[in-house]
Amino acid sequence: MARDGPASRLHVCYNHLMIPNFRSLYRASEEHARLAFFGFTVLLALGFLGTVFFSSTLVVAAVLVIIGIAFTFAKPTWTLVAFATYLPFEPFLLKWVPDDVYVFARYGSELVVYLLLAVVLWRMITGSIVFKRTPLDVAFCVVIFLALVSVVINTLSPWVAILGLRQIFRFVLLFFIVVYLAPPKNVVRKLLVAMFVIVTIQAALGYAQRVIGEPLDTFLLPSAQRTLGSLQLTSGTTEFWDPGERVFGTLGRYDQLGTFMAFFLILLVALLYERVLAKHEETPAWFILLFSIPVVGLAYSRSAWFGFALAFFFIALVIKRDKRVFVATLIGASLVAGYLSLSGLVVNQLIDSSSQTLSERFFEAFSYTRWQGEYFGLGRVYWMAQTVWTVVPSSPLFGHGPGTYGGGAVAALGNTDVYDQLGLPFGVYGTEGYIDNNWFSMWGELGTLGLGAYLVMYIALFSVCLRVYRESKDPEVRALALGVAGTMIAVAVNAFLATYLEARTLAPYLWMTGGLVVAFGKKEEIV
């Protein structure tokens, strides 16, 4: 009879719990390798066969898409990371894509969002992900319902309705995707490190543009317009400023570079304020911040400047009560007042020009002559006035429908119906369709009810960020929540000055980071 003493029981536990079954592990890995090899072989054979009927570029693109789909279903969190790190380079990379696959490349990143959504739904169906409530659920459903009501009331064509709805909601889906996938903290750390590295790269390119000028601008600028039939895929960027004056990196436009960098620098400010970085991480973080802030200035994007400033003051003065920043702000305001009194700069006479100093660019925002010029030249000021006076009163509750006024969808479609009906020119300068104001565009399309529901959703996320910041026991989560709250203030300002709630270089990060805050908050049962 075998002995059943402590040593024997320890031996059994050691054998059954501590030592893995290497034979079964080897067999499993061998099986996976065999399946992967078989799949790759079949894919390669189909690829070679496809070159007989289609262009090699199209075949390569199709093979990459299939590999991407398989990878996304296996590792959706890492697809999310790859998606986030790809977007800042997309405008530059698309410049080199051939016409026969351009439409797939142009919308490939957006299709990743829908693919990730499909993965989440599939995992919910199979039971590997459970249903999760979020503070945005009700408001999100209400916005969609009101948008659909607007589609029906205005009897929009399905094509216009689909593109209009897509423009408003496509990146909001990332919030729910991130909440359900709930990436682990180590992945989030790696994502943030990657994004801060990208910010540094963009800053280095900005300095290089300032020094080199036109040759580098020409190389980086995506100036060509791309279309698919009557649908405008990419408008192209016209360099109306002096070469090297407004830097834009790989993001295609100076304002997109400025707002992108400002977004992540706000997150970095929150991380530094909360002192969650290790000692060996603080020096690189301060370097990135101090190295990159001047490039936000060199981007000449007032939207980025004002957004960053308000977010920074919110974090430093409202939340952290930093007396140093308060004193520095008073000194800065005194210096500005002194500069205006001594320089002879007449603010009310400033207008936009291809060559401006930083101070002229800043003070031009407060110039009456500029506002007057924007109104009569059909710029942003004109459309703010006309939205209030003409567009909203003509359909106050439910708006004119998605894809009909002021946003990217109406510009891409060239849909002039609402403008013609109201006797208005077609957007900015009478030709562009968009109106350079995301909030007013939504107001015109979804009406007062739809815009109100969207604002409730936005404010709910902001409130959740503040709650997680105050109640979380994890310093890193607190820092992230504070940073995201700051970025939401910045993006709200940005959206008054252009269609940034639709922009690929900004909106995805807003909803992704918001989703991360809610995901971490749910783990601590705060949300």
Report on the structure:
This protein has 527 residues and is mainly α. Helix content is 71%, strand content 1%. It has helices spanning 6-18, 22-53, 56-74, 76-86, 90-94, 99-126, 137-153, 158-169, 173-181, 185-212, 214-220, 254-274, 279-298, 302-319, 323-343, 358-364, 368-376, 380-394, 408-413, 417-422, 438-471, 475-494, 507-523, and strands spanning 226-228, 231-234. The protein has a two-stranded antiparallel sheet. The chain starts with 5 loop residues before the first helix and ends with a helix.
Report helical residue fraction.
over 70%
H-E order: HHHHHHHHHHHEEHHHHHHHHHHHH
Major sheet: order of its strands? 1-2
Largest sheet: 2 strands, antiparallel
Looking at the structure, what is the overall shape? globular
Overall pLDDT metric = 87
* Secondary structure category: mainly alpha
> Rg from C-alpha positions?
26 Å
Number of strand elements: 2
Low-pLDDT ranges: 12-20
For the terminal residues, how far apart are their CA atoms? 57 Å
Number of helices in the DSSP assignment: 23
Relative strand content: under 5%
List the helices and strands and how they pair.
Layout: H1 6-18, H2 22-53, H3 56-74, H4 76-86, H5 90-94, H6 99-126, H7 137-153, H8 158-169, H9 173-181, H10 185-212, H11 214-220, E1 226-228, E2 231-234, H12 254-274, H13 279-298, H14 302-319, H15 323-343, H16 358-364, H17 368-376, H18 380-394, H19 408-413, H20 417-422, H21 438-471, H22 475-494, H23 507-523
Antiparallel strand pairs: 1-2
Helix pairs in contact: 2-3, 3-4, 3-6, 4-6, 4-10, 6-9, 7-21, 9-23, 10-12, 10-13, 12-13, 12-14, 12-22, 14-22, 17-18, 18-21, 21-22, 21-23, 22-23
